[in-house]
Amino acid sequence: MSESVHHTGGCLCGAVRYEVLTPLDKIVHCHCTDCQKASGAGASANAVLPTDALRFTRGEPRLFTKQVDSGNTLHRAFCADCGSPIFTRRDHVPEVSVLKVGTLDDSDAMRIVMSIWMKSHRPWMPLDAEAARYEGNRPSV
Predict the structure, then answer these.
(1) pTM metric for this prediction
(2) Angle at 130 between CA 129 and CA 134, to 5 degrees
(3) What residue spans define the domains of the chain?
(4) N or C terminus: which one in the chain shows less Cβ crowding within 10 Å?
(5) What is the pLDDT of residues 18-61, one digit of tens each?
(6) pLDDT tens per residue across span 78-133
(7) Strand pairing report for 111-116 and 132-133
(8) Cα Rg for the chain, rounded, in angstroms?
(9) Chain centre distance of CA 48
(10) The architecture CATH gives domain 7-133
(11) Are the C-beta atoms of 64 and 76 separated by less than 8 Å?
(12) What is the pLDDT of residues 103-112, one digit of tens each?
């Protein structure tokens, strides 16, 4: 993996800062009820990346762990000071992290490519007409 920094980001208060060592351009909206509650919105905006491409440069996030509707154990990382969600990671694929796109310093070039857990979609939450939609989790790659 290249050590070139492609993105930077952090939490609302600045206690947690990170670098992303891989390009990101795709957003997956998750409409599950856990993501709705964790984000305080109709969906969470996520970018999937290799765990080793996420490097913390200031602070360390706190973890909240829960078994989710898919049956997976999910670790939600957030700033212990301001509560900003930073990433999630599942026990059965620790090599993959799901970064919360709203914490990036610049995500303007990214686009929504998929909406998952549509069975929990809130009717007031806008959808991208061109993005793929799945009733449950995204298909395995």
Answers:
(1) 0.89
(2) 85
(3) 7-133
(4) C
(5) 999 999 999 999 999 999 999 999 999 999 999 999 999 999 99
(6) 999 999 999 999 998 999 999 999 999 999 999 999 999 999 999 999 999 999 99
(7) parallel
(8) 14
(9) 7
(10) Beta Complex (2.170)
(11) yes
(12) 999 999 999 9
β-partners of residue 64 are 76
CB 69 within 8 A of CB 75: no
* Lookup: tokens for 42: 């109709």
Cβ atoms of 68 and 37 within 8 Å: the answer is: no
CA-closest candidate to residue 63, choices 49, 75, 53, 51: 75
Which of 27, 24, 19, 26 is CA-nearest to residue 52? 19
**Of how many residues is the chain composed?**
141
Residue 122: both structure tokens together: 């809130």
- For range 55-72, the mean pLDDT: 90
